[in-house]
Predict the 3D structure of the following.
Amino acid sequence: GVTGLTFATILSGAFVAGNDAGNAYNTFPKMNDQWIPREDMVDPTLEPRWRNMFETTATVQWNHRVLGTSTALSALTLAGLGLAHPAARSAVTPQARRGLQVLGGVAVGRMSLGVATLLNYVPLGLAAAHQLGSLAVLTSGLYVAHSLRYASPALIRGAVRKAAASASSGGVGKVAPAMAI
């Protein structure tokens, strides 16, 4: 999911670059003191109306902001859960652990570069670093997805049993036995 969201964010970034949308609305998190600049987001002359999603500067930039923030938060959440949750800690391989660490770090770095690029009116160096960061987030997301394929089935079964046992002893109720993996 994080990797797919990253890919969608990269595509929306192409529309931002194509429309020079980074040179407009150079405030963050609001866009010219508005959370959603509704009056600027729809050009009534564009037909069909769906073209506003790809050709209106305010809409293109707002979409990229929402996708970029969602990508960073979801990558950070995945990394946090994969590294800190007790059940996940025992099932995650060292390769997946390293991938999660990198994914969380580069996602935060990329969003920070995006905000810095926007606030500084898109200097070429920051813009290029932001785009390179998108490749780092995508690559680390693919690496994590690939490395999770090799989590030990015994570790996963143990983690599921441990989570089920702790849930049932905590007064939550009876937990169904884990499926064999």
Remarks:
- Residues 172-181 have pLDDT under 50 and may be disordered.
